[in-house]
Design a protein that fits this description.
- Keywords: Acetylation, Phosphoprotein, Repeat.
- This protein has 7 helices and 19 strands.
- The chain is of the alpha+beta class and about 350 residues long.
- The chain has a 7-stranded antiparallel β-sheet, covered by helices on one side. A 7-stranded antiparallel β-sheet has the order 16-15-14-13-19-18-17, covered by helices on one side.
- Helix 3 packs across helix 4.
- It is globular and about 55 Å long.
Length: about 350
């Protein structure tokens, strides 16, 4: 009997020989992790046994690389994976930890529906707290703040974070709030913006998090960016990134010239409506952008350029207002439907 598949999807994995980062199709089983060069491959490129392994998250060994976690096997071999966004990393980490625990206890992996609370007496569920903080109606309001001739977009101040924690009764006082905010910062749920908060996070201040109106922070997947003495051209270019992120993740994209398929990380923003795509293995600047205003997006049941049957599954097409065609492939029918619906909403409401 084959091991049960618990979770699968695209992650970026660090190579063990050349130390390069490449996107892989990763499958979490009850007893190990298999990774494939392509989703359509029949044989895995490698397998990581989970018995006796340990997991580290967040893993901050690689500086600017965010959403990384590390698995260390019993032979002291380290395997590094990078997710596309924070919630995706947490979902993988949660399931891998549970799989390891089930192996140790001789139990079968089974999901349980539990209501998580952010007001636990001894420990705080930082993941649940983070989602509450991001709530569009009751969460922390993201602002455009100015300091030292710079404009910080999609961020908030340190004292606003503590105010929110206290007012929502997540903590009993500001000192306790400072401790929780420091934990959120250390786990990667909050990021520092500006010299003051960055210096504190780097250890040059007494506390890594500052309860201060001049200390700026942002959510890691909020679309934060900083403007400094920009020219008119720069301002026009950055207009694309002002939209709120409504969906992100990895998809396969077909190239316009060679018609080959490559894994790309996509970030969907609305108002203005843009779909930016990036090299998932690294790079802060997008490889390209699709302006979605007035576009048409539909599912595609056949691909004339397909070599194998697997290349015809879960396809969808975006046709822009300028009649440029983009072919994308999701991992599952459900994921394709979710992307199509999200893009349709953004195309109608965004600029």
């Amino acid at each position: 009997m084959e091991p049960k598949r618990i979770r699968e999807g695209y992650l970026v994995k660090r190579g063990s020989v050349f130390n390069t980062w490449k996107p892989m199709w990763v499958v979490l089983l009850e007893d190990g992790i298999e990774f494939y060069k392509k989703k359509s491959d029949n044989s895995p490129k490698g397998m990581i046994p989970l018995k006796g392994s340990t997991l580290t998250s967040p893993c901050q060994d690689f500086g600017k690389r965010m959403f990384v976690f590390k698995i260390t096997t019993t032979k002291q071999q380290d395997h590094f994976f990078q997710a596309a966004f924070l919630e995706e990393r947490d979902a993988w980490v949660r399931d891998i930890k549970k799989a390891i625990k089930c192996i140790e206890g001789g139990q079968k992996f089974a999901r349980k529906s539990t209501r998580r609370s952010i007001r636990l007496p001894e420990t705080v569920d930082l993941g649940a707290l983070y989602l509450s903080m991001k709530d569009t109606e009751k969460g922390i309001k993201e602002l455009n703040l100015e300091k030292d001739k710079k404009i910080f977009n999609h961020c908030f101040t340190g004292n606003c974070v503590i105010d929110w924690l206290v007012s929502n009764k997540s903590v009993r006082n500001r000192q306790e709030g400072l401790m929780i905010a420091s934990s959120l910062l250390g786990e990667g749920y909050l990021q520092p913006a500006g010299e003051l908060s960055k210096n504190a996070a780097d250890g040059t201040a007494e506390n890594p998090f500052l309860d201060n109106a001049d200390a700026f922070y942002y959510f890691p997947d909020s679309g934060f960016f900083c403007e400094e003495n920009s020219s008119d051209d720069d301002v026009i270019l950055k207009e694309e990134f002002r939209g709120v992120i409504i969906k992100q993740g990895c998809l396969l994209k077909q190239g316009h010239r060679r018609k080959n398929w490559k894994v790309r990380k996509f970030i969907l923003r609305e108002d203005p409506a843009y779909l930016h795509y990036y090299d998932p293995a690294g790079g802060e600047d997008p490889l390209g952008a699709i302006h979605l205003r007035g576009c048409v997006v539909t599912s595609v049941e056949s691909n004339p350029d397909a070599v194998r049957k697997s290349e015809e599954e879960n396809l969808f097409e975006i046709i822009t207002a300028d009649e440029v065609h983009y072919f994308l492939q999701a991992a599952t029918p459900k994921e394709r439907t979710e992307w199509i619906k999200a893009i349709q909403v953004a195309s109608r409401t965004g600029k």
